[in-house]
Design a protein that fits this description.
heterodimer; A: Glutaredoxin; four-stranded mixed beta sheet; 4 strands; B: four-stranded mixed beta sheet; 26 helices; 2Fe-2S (chain A); Thioredoxin-like_sf (chain A); NADP_DH_HndA-like (chain A); iron (chain A); iron-sulfur (chain A)
Amino acid sequence: MEEAILEEVVRIYRGKPEKLIAALLALQRHYGYLPEPALRTLAQELGVPLSKVYGVATFYAQFRLKPRGKHTVCVCLGTACHVRGSEQIFHALKRELGVEPGDTTADGRFTLEVVSCVGACSMAPVVVVDEETHGRLDPEKALALLKKY
Amino acid sequence: MRSLMDRCCSRCTHSPQTPCKDYVLCRRDGPFCHDDPECKRRRKAWLNSRFPPPGSGQRRLLVCGGLTCGAAGSFSLPEAFRKAIEKAGLEEQVTVTLVGCLGLCEEGPLALVMPERVLYCRLKLEDVAAIVEEHFKGGKPVERLLFRDDTGKTYPFLPEIPFYRKQQRVVLERCGYINPEDIAEYIAAGGYRALTSVLFSLSPEEVIEEIKKSGLRGRGGAGFPTGKKWEAARRVPSSKRYVICNADEGDPGAFMDRALLEGDPHAVIEGMIICGYAIGSDEGYVYVRAEYPLAVKRLRIAIEQAYAAGLLGENILGSGFSFHLHINEGAGAFVCGESTALMASIEGNRGIPRIKVPRSTEKGLFGKPTVLNNVETFANVPLIILRGSQWFANIGTKGSKGTKIFALSGKVKHTGLVEVPMGTTLKELIFDIGGGIKGGKRFKALQIGGPSGGCIPEDMLDLPIDYESLTGAGAMMGSGSIVVMDEDNCMVNTARFFLNFTERESCGKCTPCREGTKQMLNILERITRGEGSPSDLSLLEFLGQVVKATSFCGLGTSAPNPVLTTLRFFRSEYLQHVTERRCSAGECMALRRFVILAEKCIGCGACAYVCPVKAIKGEKKKPHHIDEKVCVKCGRCFEICRFQAVKRL
């Protein structure tokens, strides 16, 4: 864990309990997840109980308490993707990677995630790998996509 | 003068530190403080390069940089075009800009040639050279890259394409036509003039009156009259008030707000500043989803530029009115679309709604009077001020004024972003604009309003789009997502899909929503697994009514809508699942069975190759068969077989 990042986040948000979510987003952006020691420090510096930090971190879908793999494969299960067959894609990826959503493959290469909509409905069904959106997929193409990473 | 925002010469007295009420007008039509034909000429030259007039020989290529076109490869196009244009020696005549969403997402990446409005579809890097050679040099549009309908007819000009013909783009007028990362283009297109006229010629009460007279209602879903909301907040005595823009577009299938923020962020900012002036607030927040990184980025740039130009901050244009704007990134919670939950989230808490007395207009963010409107609502405000409430009230129906933006997706041919006057029928939207159903399939239903909305069958497609008609049908306007379903979509599975979503997104505060959606989901899962019974249908209806009547916030009171509407309009499909144990659409995995027809199978082995669980066995060139005990019913054999030898039962 890089201490400098934590120090920087603490410096910006110290004593501002209303900035808890922004602080958590900033931490996650750097670490890829929310490490427990960082949450303890943050709770102290912001002046909020650790239970509240944990409550907020588990309430919102964006936050993760476990480290992530090298790449995040995020399957969109929004309505438009659903009606164009995203469930098949999800099952195919789940089978291929052998993990449940939120978990990481044993080799640490991929973390599987699901999202309710990324707003790219016109090219449904969509899978987002890291920051790149891939559309008009089917199970075949989605599996082929993994090989690119 | 590289930008319209720069000083034309040393005589220009304007700077953000020396604000001036003529600033916005002066940028485009000035200078007003001194007279110099050369300064006027420079302005004109800049404007002509951005908005080339017909016959000038100047062209501007607008490349769609919306999320969808971007993902399809548009982000690399501008650079390629610039290089090719330079190589052809045309850099004086043609400029290239990355813009926001042009609307016809299905055909992306899109590019539009101005001023003639030739639209190119499905562009690839390989096509760049042809456009530069044949069109920019030769003067003839490249036929093969134009929009083509089913009959093969091509449409060179955007306004003639059926998708655009029935639309009325007023809120989206600039979206796709200006560089969203340059405030100068927004100002050149008439932006911030509404703000100027508000600050210097209208009292806050007059602004509210104008919005009330226009009949504008909230575009986020519930349709509350905007002017009334503003008035309520203004009336509460307080030294501090807040303006919040709800850009937490959580409905799956909705991307209107994303497109607006990516394509014309200043319109939203201008609407918010006007609201601040009207209600007496000096501080606002845009609560935007973290799932929309591009929208956040463009909004951030827009806010910085508005500050730099003195249009945000202290003493705006010397009017004495100050307004500050912050971005607040959401962290992924559907319930935060609910106003009180959203405010809880800005305050750094879990997004849990509170009881609505007092209303947010009395005690909202940090306990202060707060106006919360959504992105599209704010984007309508400058238009109403500039063109007048009467102009706005003339569009639409008796109870629903103006236009509405919809995100069209699902099994419709032309998916994309559309804007139509209120009162347009759903049929016009799906068939005239959307082009009907893909692949010659049959229309089954459309889902409007997201997880809070309902499913509308074919015989109700003549329903006009207005708040009351849709609510009467058990659906709702919602924020504007329309997902079209065809014969291959199972309505029971669709209802299960939505319940799965609302159950997951329920914040857990109240029992009817937390437990009720869970029980409803259990029943729906049972039915889609083929384990349901006819009595489940009445139980579902009963539970749905209870959840609707007793939940705490809008999430719970609307969560049963997809179930109740599908039970009402597609009951036979439910009955098929619970009595025949069959799903005729073939979507419910557990109810599917696949067999190989021996007389049609040639033994090519393609199905055995794609089967993920090796359930298909057979010798080469001899009929194969499926081991049903191993089969996971994924259907990939069915999709891959070219001889129709795999049959779905």
